[in-house]
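Field guide to reading this record: the first block holds the primary sequence, the second block holds the structure written as discrete tokens, and the final block holds curator observations. Each block starts with its own label. This record concerns DUF3618 domain-containing protein, catalogued under organism Microbacterium azadirachtae.

BLOCK 1 — SEQUENCE
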Amino acid sequence: MAVDPVNIPRTAVPNGIVDPVASARAELKAALLAIEEKGNVPRRLEKATVEGKVKLRSFVRRNPVGAIAAVVGVAAVVGGVVWAVARSISR
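BLOCK 2 — STRUCTURE
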């Protein structure tokens, strides 16, 4: 299975580099990009949020009744937690 050179990940080292200096530079670039990707928490959170929204919209389209039930369930749980905290604070 051949890998499309246009769609390789930014953190991958391309095959076929014969020059040791160019190979070392490519490996260093890939390592630095991997570190930056792993350490960039705001970008990772943004990506996870976008993926979560896509999954949620897909779930709502496939199962609107289940989505409404999930929203009601989450609201009940949050309301119960708020009520319990408020009651414990007021005592």
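BLOCK 3 — OBSERVATIONS
The helical segments are 20-39, 41-62, 64-90.
The chain has a mean pLDDT of 87.
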